Amino acid sequence: MTPASRGKAWWGLGLVLVLVILGGLYFSGLVPLPFAQPKPKALCYVSPKNPNFIKETPGKDPEGNELVPVYATPTGAQKPTGSAVAVAPKAERKIKYWVAPMDPGYIRDKSGKSPMG
To answer: Judging by DSSP bridges, how do beta strands 42-46 and 54-55 pair with one another?
Structure first.
């Protein structure tokens, strides 16, 4: 191997090494991707057990639970997609019979006092 070819080999090896390092940084996420969606900013943080406990910053509630972020609703999410279905209002239910709480065998067609009191 001549000294000139050794120099070219070192340059080639160095170029490959630089490309591998840049590719690793690109795919590891250290270099931002141009097509990546920006992460939405949380409006506030709410306790998972007590929805009335709201903070502006992340942290923990008084019970020690991690606060859950609340994000803005996308504009298209408020409108329902698909056809509207008409639902009839529930009719009032009629009671057919009454059962004594202590004696399930005692059934009457009218309300009243059970024989056990």
So the answer is: antiparallel
Question: b/e for 33-52, b at 16 or more Cβ within 10 A?
Answer: eeeeeeeeebeebbbeeeee
Residue in the structure block whose two tokens are 């000139």 = 4
Q: What is the pLDDT of residues 66-100, one digit of tens each?
A: 999 998 877 655 555 556 666 777 888 888 888 98
> 27-39 pLDDT, tens per residue?
776 656 566 677 7
Tokens of 100: 């004594």
Three-state DSSP at 11 gives: helix
